[in-house]
Amino acid sequence: MHLVEMNTPDFSASQPPHEGLRALRARAEERRRLVTQITADKSPEEVQRLVQELQVHQIELEMQNEELLLAQAEAEAVRAQYLDLYDFAPAGYFTLSAHGLIRQLNLRGSQLLGSVRQRLTGRRFPLFVAPADRPRFADFLAQVLRAEFRQSCELAMLRDDGTSFFAQLEGVAVQVPDGYGQHEPQCRLAIIDVSARQAALQELAASEARFRQLFEQTSDAIILVQSNVVIDCNPRALQLLGARCKSQLVGFPPWEHATPLLNGQPRADVFALGVAEALRHGSRRAEFTLQRLTGEVAWVESVITPITVSGQPLLHIVWRDITAAKHAAEQLRTSKEQLSLALPGSGTGTFAWYQSTDQVQWDERAQAAFGFARQAAVPTAAVLRRLHPADAPAVQAALQAAVASREPLALQYRIIWPDRSVHHISAAGRVVVDGAGQVQGFAGIVMDVTAQHETQQALRYQSLLTQRMLEAMPVVLARLDAEGRYLEALGQGLHNLGLANESLPGLKALDLFPAPAEEIARLQAGERVEFDNEVDCQGRHYHFHSYAYFDQERRQTMLLAIDVTPLEEQKQQLRREKEFNESLLDNSVDGIMAFDQHGCFLAWNRVLERRTGRLEAELLGQNLFAVFPEWQDKPQEQAIRQVLKGKRLTRYNMPFHTQPGHYESHLVPLLGPDNQVKGGLVLIRDVTERVQLAEEATRLKLRQQQEVLSAILATQEEERKRIAEALHNGVGQLLYAAKLNLENRAPDAPYRRNTLSLLEDAIRATRTISFELTPGILEDFGLKIALEELGKRIPKHNLRIHLNLVGLDRPRPRPVEIALYRVVQELLNNIIRHAQASEAFIHVVHEGRHVHISVEDNGVGIGTGQEGAPPKGIGLAGIHNRIDLLGGELIIESRAGRGTIVTIELTIS
């Protein structure tokens, strides 16, 4: 053993294991060569030493073999542990190629994508990313492959069954040998399902939005206080204090706007006491006055509630404006005081009936009104017996209805006193209820109105007597106050006018019977005057001879008017015709103006008054060009001149006024009896609604065209996909098989090289056509990447392409994306095939709802057909059809030898 230790080299300490193994193998080969040599010339000591060295090396090999077996077992255990950790890890692990192909994944990754690993390996990872997030994933993958450290992002993912989840992606780039001495860049990707966290964040955001909405839109003023300083407030707090912005409240103490003293104590001390009370009991309610920034004082009910937000103590303070309630209470108190003073002076008494005792309690004035002696309380039955038999049923029914409906009651009725005299009572009151809403009784006021009733009866009799006398006479007898208003008017003369006796009081007398100023002056001087009046009433005209004089105290005027003759029917007819014409103009829905042969206004109806702000009274007789100088040397003046020459015209959107909308004007000459033009008439009709309906029909037609476009494009893309698959899987495979067959034949066949070259060109052309028919990159990575790839596929020695792509990262409808790609593809094909150009510039810009496409080349240009129309070809016809279906505009500018510019403008709805 000692020899073994002395001669065993320490490979682990001096050199790597594989280097030690190579050295050991070399020494063993050397010993084997020595053993195979003839040892006849060797001494016994040398032979023995040689045998001993061989034995030592044999023991070393056996020990190293045992160490290798142990290392292999340990490596297998570690690998099994790694596989368990890899497959059963809570996160999904993926290995992606630089193009996003899934090379390897663990069990959790297949569970996240909802399929088995065998079906997922080799598929494109972007297919499991939500379409809206695929551009973000493409940027993320490119950033991972470029960066030297880990990258992270969050995306919306799709499972194989179409369900979605939200995932957090962590990626790092690695270099993997490809077996040909090169290294392929790959992405090691870890995925964690964070749908629950995202849902929690969304719920938290929604909760915060609801709180903010409640905070901002509540009808109460709310402020948030921290460390005795206002940190936030809602709009109602600004309104309550009369502030314009939050900076007038935020940053100040909450008692800043309170009145200088609260209950005789400093404001800060009162607030500190309120906060301490709120901390002890959970909240504190109090009332105080504050001074608005406008100087007004308001009463506020305050509720202080301590809260904790993110571990920080806050005070949630609610202010409710109770100024109106305070004022109402003060007014009620004042009203009660005034009522207590007014009732005795008016002779009004108060009463109250209580259901529990069935008695009426009243004051002295109420007792006297019912003829009772001094009794503070009287049984209800005793009071009811005083009612007049004819009025008792109605009074009791009204009381029962008031109790049932709990509505106020007011009525008049008669009672009979013990001396059999009849008295008239006026009463009012309402039901009394307790806190639970139960009826307790009835309370109100009563007043004896017998004297007033008798006075009214006497006056009514005298008035009726006078009225009967005057009804048989064609006169009007009236009394007027000092201002000339009717106090009373009677007589058959009123009936001739179609007026009732009670229709004139309150009206001005001379409005009905106008008088000359001289007679009125004489009347005011105290003389008796006579004058004639013409009265117009209900379409008939009357002539009155009137007498007027003052009473003895000169407080009122007496007027006697006698109907003597009707007025002339011809004047009435002329007045009615004029009123009819004015009504016809003013009630027309169209604007109407008329002018004479000199251009002076004859009519201007109310529609034009509203639309121009110019009144008819200020325009009649004025020259229309002097009133509206902006019409001179304009289409308005030309149209008016043509009408005065006898032409009938219709003009659309001719601005005779400044109101917005769409209008059409009809101009008609006005002819006299001799058929000569005496003026003109203009009818201005509002056709805004009709134009809007036409525009809506256009928009509907456009939407229908968009739907047709979607169906057409979808059908085209499906057909392209079918043809591409047929080319790839059918023709392509047949061509490739033919190539393999030729390659396996004798290499000296004379046609072999040319045939292989033709087959190679055919396979390449088939692949190119298949890609152009169905570019998968458009679906996977979007329009921007697809257009960039389209430009890369064109050899630069054939055509240099300059791309300017702006705003293509935002989403667009899939039919629009396909149409834009096909249009650019077809324009590039036309340039390559026909333009003989060396350079092309492609601009695709998406801003807002508008997409602008400009394709320019330096080729030979496009020849024009008849009348400058562009040539008709399959390519340009297809582009025209796509742009027309999208509702866009296509402009082609081309000059021979100077290239072509194709411009397309689209609006995305």
From TrEMBL:
* Domain PAS as annotated: residue spans: 78-148, 335-406, 577-647
Coiled coil as a keyword?
A: yes
Give any Pfam family that matches.
PAS_3
Check the record and name the InterPro entries matching this protein.
HATPase_C_sf, HATPase_dom, His_kinase_dom, PAC, PAS, PAS-assoc_C, PAS-like_dom_sf, PAS_4
EC main group: transferase
Give yes or no: UniProt keyword Phosphoprotein.
yes
Coiled-coil positions are 47-81
Q: Which reaction does it catalyse?
A: ATP + protein L-histidine = ADP + protein N-phospho-L-histidine
Q: Which domain of life is it from?
A: Bacteria
Query: Which segments constitute the Histidine kinase domain?
Result: 820-909
Name of this chain's protein: histidine kinase
The organism named in the record is Hymenobacter algoricola
